[in-house]
Amino acid sequence: MFSLLDPPVGAMSWPLCLLLPSLQTYARFTGAPLKVHKISNPWRSPSGTLPALRTSHGEVISVPHKIITHLRKEKFNADYDLSARQGADTLAFVSLLEEKLLPVLIHTFWIDAKNYVEVTRKWYAEAMPFPLNFFLPGRMQRQHMERLQLLCGEHRPEHEEELEKELYQDARECLTLLSQRLGSQKFFFGDAPASLDAFVFSYLALLLQVKLPSGKLQAHLRGLHNLCAYCTHILSLYFPWDGAEVPPPRQTPVSPETEEEPYRRRTQVLSVLAGLAAMVGYALLSGIVSVQRATPARTPGTGALGMAEGDEEE
Amino acid sequence: MCNLPIKVVCRANAEYMSPSGKVPFIHVGNQVVSELGPIVQFVKAKGHSLSDGLDEVQKAEMKAYMELVNNMLLTAELYLQWCDEATVGEITHARYGSPYPWPLNRILAYQKQWEVKRKMKAIGWGKKTLDQVLEDVDQCCQALSQRLGTQPYFFNKQPTELDALVFGHLYTILTTQLTNDELSEKVKNYSNLLAFCRRIEQHYFEDRAKGSSSIRLS
């Protein structure tokens, strides 16, 4: 029995790790008994990062391709029936996806201003506990932006629009190539799904399911009917309750509340304590309240007291 | 492979001359085009193409395999040159800094190394060990070998861009002297890839060299 720790699932969480849906899909394809735990704080995971897989032996693996290797060792291998040539094709197409489609997905969700503000940041802010939701999404955005810049090479600011156009053109070409390769087959290699299907499905489903305010790539994808049918087919077979058309927002009122339950009490207590500490500190510093040391019973002390009393009388 | 007359020139500031910062680039008339993809498109626009005879599915596969080579072989080459301390110390720094006087040669070499290491980290190769990188190269060569099979070229009997790209990388790996030969050993394990390289070298470079002396490969 494996436990996979991952952030709140549903259309919300997928951008957190673009590989995560492919891991889950792969597990579903192979029938591996996987239990998904939803946690929204990466520091609560046993390895400190998400996703993480805890195996039945108590081992924790957090590198995605090692997770797939482990599943294969435990005899959950979706590529068992593939020929050597098909295995080689899988490697090639996965590279194609990572080079052409992944940068554009990162750009769509994290760099494109409209999408980031209206969709991505909102999801994270809602899913994460206080106070992480203030700075973690911003930090992730900076990390993604740096990664994208390194991947695409140095470019001057005035060429940014050109670069963006080129990136999107490459991605559209990649989608068209996938569509041509799939043709009218049910899966990429015949009638049974393989790991390539898991990868392709995870990227495509992300693009199709999420309602983006500026979805240039989405429009192109919707035009490729065989890919849309492919996604819907896999969704109906392996993710029946999520469904293709069921709107995720129906589930959101339920899950954030249960998530927040354990945190609410804690944040309340913390905020009360913080407020008290702030008030006491201010009072002490500004002299409204002063702490006097208890003086020993000696003449200068009583003299001082006497003088004070004298002052008061006057 | 397209029978086009070219002259290969080495320049120290090639990376700065290139419009995208990457080499190689070609200079034709008053146009400058860099990187393999755009160069292929440019040549195609002028009427020369190697992949016209392929159908859509084959074109998709060709593009995918080209990305595989770029992803694995190119990155492994960069890793070995810049992230493996032995190679860096003995070969890379000296070679990269050779056109410049001291101290510029040291500074530029370190700067380039820092840049490459950052890129490695961004794509997740920063924490890989040399053995893991060699394993990835082996996997890539295995995939290429399986795809090639017993054919003379990757697609039918005519070479395409993929053949040119694979030849370029494999030939360089096989003929460049490094501190350790493990990378070229990995490639040598696949006899059909070796035969492939030999065939292209003989057909396109040695025969041409007899006629014109523009390209010389030692």
From TrEMBL, chain A:
Subcellular location per the Swiss-Prot or TrEMBL entry: Mitochondrion outer membrane
Residue spans crossing the bilayer: 269-291
One GO cellular component term noted in the UniProt record for this chain: SAM complex
UniProt xrefs under SUPFAM superfamilies: GST C-terminal domain-like
Organism in which the protein naturally occurs: Myotis myotis
One Pfam family this sequence matches: GST_C_6
Domain of life: Eukaryota
Domain Mitochondrial outer membrane transport complex Sam37/metaxin N-terminal: 23-141
Chief site of localization: mitochondrion
PANTHER family: METAXIN RELATED, METAXIN-1
Assembly and interaction partners: Interacts with MTX2/metaxin-2. Associates with the mitochondrial contact site and cristae organizing system (MICOS) complex, composed of at least MICOS10/MIC10, CHCHD3/MIC19, CHCHD6/MIC25, APOOL/MIC27, IMMT/MIC60, APOO/MIC23/MIC26 and QIL1/MIC13. This complex was also known under the names MINOS or MitOS complex. The MICOS complex associates with mitochondrial outer membrane proteins SAMM50, MTX1 and MTX2 (together described as components of the mitochondrial outer membrane sorting assembly machinery (SAM) complex) and DNAJC11, mitochondrial inner membrane protein TMEM11 and with HSPA9.
Function in brief: Involved in transport of proteins into the mitochondrion. Essential for embryonic development.
One BP annotation, GO: mitochondrion organization
UniProt-recorded name of the protein: Metaxin
Similarity comment text for this entry: Belongs to the metaxin family.
Keywords: Isopeptide bond, Membrane, Mitochondrion, Mitochondrion outer membrane, Protein transport, Transmembrane, Transmembrane helix, Transport, Ubl conjugation
Domain Metaxin glutathione S-transferase as annotated: residue spans: 171-234
TrEMBL record, chain B:
Classification via Pfam families: GST_C_6 (PF17171), Tom37 (PF10568)
UniProtKB keywords: Acetylation, Membrane, Mitochondrion, Mitochondrion outer membrane, Protein transport, Transport
Database matches in CDD domains: GST_C_Metaxin2
GO BP field: mitochondrion organization; protein transport
Domain Metaxin glutathione S-transferase residues, every copy: 138-200
Compartments, as annotated in UniProt: Mitochondrion outer membrane
GO cellular component, one term: SAM complex
Family per record: Belongs to the metaxin family.
Role played: Involved in transport of proteins into the mitochondrion.
Protein name per UniProt: Metaxin-2
